[in-house]
Amino acid sequence: MSNIPTPHNSAKQGDFAKTVLMPGDPLRAKYIAETYLEQPRQVTAVRNMLGYTGTYKGKEISVMGAGMGMPSIGIYSYELFHFYDVENIIRIGSAGALQDSLHLMDVVIGMGACTDSNYAYQYGLPGTFAPIADYGLLSRAVEIAKKQGTPVAVGNILSSDVFYNLCPDANDKWRSMGVLAVEMEAAALYMNAARAGKKALCMFTISDHIYRPEALSAADRQLGFSKMMEIALELA
Fold first, then answer.
1. Superfamily assignment of 19-235 in CATH?
2. Nearest to residue 184, comparing CAs of 99, 120, 114, 128?
3. Residue 209, annotated ligand binder?
4. Of 100, 134, 169, 208, which is the active-site residue?
5. Could you report the per-residue pLDDT of 99-135, keeping only the tens digit for each?
6. Tell me, what DSSP letter sits at residue 160?
7. Residue 82 known to bind ligand
8. Is 24 assigned to a binding site?
9. CA–CA distance, 54 with 49 (Å, rounded to integer)
10. CA 107, CA 104: separation in Å to the nearest integer?
11. Would the annotation count 124 as a binding residue?
């Protein structure tokens, strides 16, 4: 019996390209599809988690929202990898800066994803798994950024289950270990890709700074981030 459509995705077999860009916000997925893709068509809208497929410079690409948090991106990326034959997922999201060297609108690439989540429990591993990006995607993204003249910071990021953390020094501890920024999805995506034998990469635009009073508006987060999007589109 076919696994598709799923309770979370109404797309048919073949509706998704081999590479899917995944912003968290489904409205950002709509914006990317309508702004950058040629002949985009909507392939799913279950729970308003919008997904589209079109072409970019002649190459088929899909874009779909992932929602907030590891449980959400865990569901959507699992289904894309296992049921829709997707090979590459590139997360394009926002993150809060932890290091002084980062500023609003800077682009960060997550080489590794630290986490406070228990997502890896399901694998029954006899130790701690280190979620990392696919090196091929990462190295190509860095080269594309250089060609486009976009500086990028590459390193560890934190995927946290907690947005409003009651532990007052939690960020200080991650910052002291050189972690660049904090977000809420990458570790689950990297683990899903590893388990499925597929490829994943997470790129972020700094939307706020944890240690400085700097933050982008909701509209900027939804419609901005063009430099990161252009790297991802060329990478796909």
1. Nucleoside phosphorylase domain (3.40.50.1580)
2. 114
3. no
4. 208
5. 999 999 999 999 999 999 999 999 999 999 999 999 9
6. -
7. no
8. yes
9. 17
10. 9
11. no
